[in-house]
Amino acid sequence: MKSHFLKVVGYGKPSLLIAVLTATLMIGGCAMIKTDSPALPQIDEHQIRLAEDIRLATEAWPQAQWWHRYGDAQLNALIERALKEAPIMAVAQQRLEASKAQTAYSVSTTGLLVGFSASLNRQDLSENGFLGPFAHTIPAQGLTGPWYTEGTMGFSAEYTFDLWGKDRAKVDAALGVQRAHQAETAEVALTLSSKVALTYYDMQSIYAALNLLEQARDLENNMVAAHLARAETGIEARTPTEMVRVHQLGLEQQISAAHSKITILKESLRALTGAGPDNFPEIKPVPLPSDSGALPPTLGYELLARRPDLQAARWYVQASLSQVDMAKAAFYPSFDIKAFFGLDSLHLADLLHRSSTQFNLIPGLSLPIFDGGRLNAALANSRHQSNTLIAQYNQAVVNAVQEVASNGIVLVDLDQQVQLQNARLIAISYKMESAKAHRERGLVDDIVVFESTLPVLEEQARLIELHNRQLTASINLSRALGGGFIQVDTNTSP
């Protein structure tokens, strides 16, 4: 049985196809967009600056591995391990890979789609159906019904013309989300490295304070022995001895609390780095670094490029604007062409014959006319979501500048406090050195030296606390300035 079907709209009549395209373009100008509020303005870059009176002694942007400036091999190893093994980094990386796959999928749906298909259809035709005559057996007319085994095989193709930029907007939206996730991955790394550094230096400051507490305990032990010797010889009452013991017990409490804090901080570092119970390195005490952080000579639009959280917010805004464009394009007609070339036959034995060749060319036009307000509602929803993201972005920029300013002010204040504390330490150390000199001359006993040494240890403990606060503000400032994040290339194609 011969089955040769050719369907071409406009085939042999180019003027008809041109007329269809012209009508499509004309109808496109009549899209029924009833309301569309304007996009909120994004924050003016001139507002992204610090007050003129906020300055530090050193001026620089943080480097990519900003923690290396502390010169601490233990800290470097902990942060590098955290960035490789922490579960939160794996979560961020998987989100990024998923968004890359989504972008690739969006791109793949915009081009020419070509496929191959083959099917068999064993059917018993109804005498009352559209193919009723074929349900009879009339060999002279080529009818062998009612059973037929239809075979179809061939290539199909489909292409949609992106006349209004809907597909391009879809790709741009997916690409914006991908770049936002890329920036968010950098933000997770920055936050993680900052937490590791803060926890590590909290531990080191407690190590340093613990060392002073143990020195003070040794002095208290000597003082108890000295007072006890005096009491036993009747030189003084037992009251001074017991008072020193009270202070000694207080030191023991502080030492016990310090050991507990070190254990807690160690567990925090273990969790941050993703280490197991048996493969976490020993954290050895090291001197606290003197770094006090730095502000760049100018702070302006560069902050937007260097803070990954602001970059993520910016790319979410760009993606939302593309989604608004998609919602607008939905009001306009769409035009596509579908084609099929292959073989089709009601008798499987005739499928591979030349007479079974089939070619379909089907241009298609789709135009929304009445949708119950669905498209306008979708546009309004996209616009409001976009404006929300813009408002959040503007607030994030304001918060970022305030965060930098606050940490800069704290560092300036702490620098002054450290200078004053050093002066206090020098002044109070004079009394201790004087007592030691008098003891060497036999003018005073050991108790006087012990009593003049304890205040020095207390002032040294205050200095350690100030140094730790300096490091905390310095690390927070590095984070506020975006660490070493580099702006993603806005011209990168998926």
Automatic annotation (TrEMBL):
It is found in: Cell membrane; Membrane. NCBIfam families: outer_NodT (TIGR01845). One of its GO terms (cellular component) is plasma membrane. The keyword Coiled coil does not apply. InterPro entries: MdtP/NodT-like, OMP_efflux. Transmembrane segments: none annotated. Its main location: membrane. GO terms for molecular function: efflux transmembrane transporter activity. Keywords: Lipoprotein, Membrane, Palmitate, Signal, Transmembrane, Transmembrane beta strand. PANTHER family: MULTIDRUG RESISTANCE OUTER MEMBRANE PROTEIN MDTP-RELATED, OUTER MEMBRANE CATION EFFLUX PROTEIN. It is a lipid-anchor. This is Efflux transporter, outer membrane factor (OMF) lipoprotein, NodT family. Belongs to the outer membrane factor (OMF) (TC 1.B.17) family. It comes from Solimicrobium silvestre.
